[in-house]
Specification:
Elements lengths: L7 E6 L2 H11 L3 E8 L4 E7 L5 E6 L18 E5 L2 H10 L8 E2 L6 E6 L5 E6 L1
Length: 128
C-alpha cells in the first residue's frame, strides 16, 4: 500500500447553513461543488484546503449527536497545520471564535490549541 497523504475528512453537521459558513469563512475552505441529494434529503459540500486536502460536509435529517467531547470512541479531532499559531488564533478571535489557550506539546516542542466547530467538533491548530 502506497499512502501518500489524506484525501479528505468527512463531517456530518446538524445545521448545514451554519456549518457551511464556518467551513468557508472561519476555516478557509474553497467550494469545489455543492450537491443536494433529494433521495437522502441531504446536502454534500466538497471543500478544498490550501494543501489540496478536502473536507466533505454532509447534512442529514436528525443525525445523532456526538457522544462526548473529546474522549468518545472514534475520530477524536481534526488538526490543521499552521505556520503561525498566534496569527491564526488572532484571526479566529476576530471572527468571534473562542479558542483555548495555546499549549506546548511536551513530546515535540510544538505549540497547539483547540477551538470548536458549530457542532462542538474539536479542531486543533498545530504549529509547523
Amino acid at each position: 500500500m502506497d499512502i501518500i497523504g489524506i484525501h479528505h475528512l468527512a463531517i456530518i453537521c446538524s445545521n448545514y447553513g451554519r456549518s457551511k459558513h464556518f467551513y468557508t469563512e472561519v476555516v478557509p475552505g474553497s467550494i469545489i461543488r455543492e450537491t443536494y441529494r433529494t433521495e437522502r434529503d441531504s446536502y454534500k459540500l466538497d471543500l478544498a484546503l490550501p494543501d489540496g486536502t478536502q473536507i466533505e460536509l454532509f447534512s442529514f435529517p436528525n443525525p445523532p449527536a456526538r457522544p462526548s467531547r473529546p474522549e468518545a470512541q472514534g475520530l477524536r479531532h481534526i488538526a490543521f497545520k499552521v505556520s503561525d499559531i498566534d496569527q491564526a488564533v488572532a484571526e479566529l478571535v476576530k471572527k468571534g471564535i473562542v479558542v483555548e489557550p495555546v499549549r506546548l506539546d511536551e513530546l515535540t516542542g510544538k505549540r497547539f490549541t483547540f477551538f470548536p466547530d458549530p457542532d462542538q467538533l474539536p479542531i486543533e491548530l498545530y504549529e509547523k
